[in-house]
Amino acid sequence: AAEVNADADSAPSVSTWQHLLRVVNNLAVMLKVSGRAEDAEALQRWELGACEARLGLEHPETLTSVANLALLMDSLGHLDEAEALHRRAVAGREARVRAHTS
Predict the structure, then answer these.
(1) What pLDDT, in 10s, does the model give residues 10-28?
(2) 95-98 long-range CB contacts below 8 Å, 24 or more apart?
């Protein structure tokens, strides 16, 4: 069900941001598949920045966004950046696993 915000002047909730960011990612994926990788890259970078700002650097959605950008950079042949992003995503996920298994 859609979330209704009774106070139009209040900031969107975290779940509203998460939904928006997922939709932006879906659009980026569609653009990449359509051969518009540069447009996809711009959207995925925007999405990652928004995730970091709204959800935090270690939030699972942010780490997914990091991994998605890594895959795109890999497909574009930007292998050094792709590797760094993949390593960041793995480190973040490992930290979450350790935090929940300690």
Answers:
(1) 677 878 888 898 899 999 9
(2) 95/58, 96/58, 96/60, 96/63
**Residue 22 token pair:** 């997922």
71 in Cβ contact with 85 (< 8 Å): no
One DSSP character per residue, 16-74 reads HHHHHHHHHHHHHHHHHHTT-HHHHHHHHHHHHHHHHHHH-TT-HHHHHHHHHHHHHHH
Q: Judge whether 55 and 12 are in contact, CB under 8 Å.
A: no
Query: How many degrees, rounded to 5, is the angle at CA 70 between CA 25 and CA 74?
Result: 115
CA 101 to CA 90: how far, in whole Å?
Answer: 16
With a cut of 50, which residues of the chain have pLDDT below it?
1-7
